[in-house]
Design brief:
Elements (H helix, E strand, L loop, with lengths): L21 H17 L3 H18 L3 H5 L6 H13 L9 E3 L2 E2 H27 L2 H11 L10 H31 L9 H7 L1 H24 L18 H22 L1 H12 L1
Antiparallel strand pairs: 1-2
């Protein structure tokens, strides 16, 4: 269901990850993305998933909330995997199964799908453990050097924060409109893909109207409160680094180093595991 959309939602908890500095969490997310792309083998990718699982446990966020984030990109994952299978370029020695499907193509598609899932789940952990206000402050602080060249850092951070926060709101609004259309006899689940696409037109128009109305109301509310993104604005909460941020940074650095080593010694490790299990 659209109400299961995770991005932009905050799960309140008293955990190690929640108390970290938002700037560090954003940088560590970037490091995690690098770690996912550094992993060249299934063993390295499984290591990143284990690291992510440990992070979820440390954040005290229900694993189900993190897994819900996959629903938003499930179609993209399946579509990308199918394209990867159908357009795989065979090499000498590849095993042909049927039509244009090769064993190596299936393995490559599975690796790519697992990589996409890892990226989305890692991003979901950030949004679930960081409030939109903290994300705005963190982004603004990280981009602050750009203000030297007259770049509107505060405005950009505010726009990104509002856009992120609007995702679950628009998802709930879409579900409400769909339910209202179904009550009037509309069908969204029958017919081919073209008919399904046409059936969404009555949903998109009121959704766009609702989105513009909410944006207009938000702008009026900000004007009524004399909001301005000037340089003289102060912060109620000051961002400070703590020992948690140092520990988390060291852990992520060790994890990246471990993934690089797994890439280098993957064959030896797999051979050793085969001997143990055999």
């Amino acid at each position: 269901m659209l109400s299961d959309v995770t991005f932009g939602q905050y799960y309140q908890a008293d955990s190690f990850v929640h108390k970290m500095d938002p700037r560090v969490k954003i940088l560590l997310l970037i490091a995690y993305i690098v770690m996912v792309f550094v992993a060249k083998t299934f063993l390295g990718l499984f290591a990143t998933l284990i690291f992510l699982l440990v992070t979820v446990v440390a954040s005290k966020v229900p694993i189900g909330s993190v897994l819900k984030s996959i629903k938003a990109i499930l179609f993209l994952v399946v579509f990308t995997a199918i394209l990867n299978i159908c357009f795989y370029s065979p090499k000498n020695g590849d095993t042909h199964l049927f039509w244009v499907v090769y064993t190596e193509g299936l393995i490559s598609a599975g690796f790519l799908a697992l990589r996409l899932v890892s990226l989305v789940m890692g991003s979901a952990v950030l949004t679930l453990t960081t409030t939109p206000v903290s994300l705005t402050d963190g982004i603004e602080s990280l981009l602050k050097p750009l203000s030297l060249v007259k770049f509107p850092v505060h405005d950009l951070a505010l726009i990104m924060s509002i856009a992120l926060r609007s995702i679950p709101t628009l998802a709930n609004e879409t579900e409400r409109i769909i339910n209202a259309q179904k009550a009037r006899g509309a069908e969204f689940d029958s017919g081919n893909i073209i008919k399904k696409a046409k059936a969404l037109i009555p949903v998109l128009i009121p959704l766009l109207i609702s989105a513009f109305r909410r944006g207009d109301e938000l702008g009026d509310a900000m004007d009524a409160r004399c909001y301005s993104g000037s340089k003289v604005r102060t912060k109620y909460k000051k961002l400070t680094l703590t020992f948690r941020d140092l520990v988390a940074t060291l852990v992520v650095a060790i994890a990246i180093t471990g993934v690089i080593m797994l890439n280098a010694y993957d064959a030896q490790i797999m051979l050793m595991l085969a001997k143990i299990w055999g």
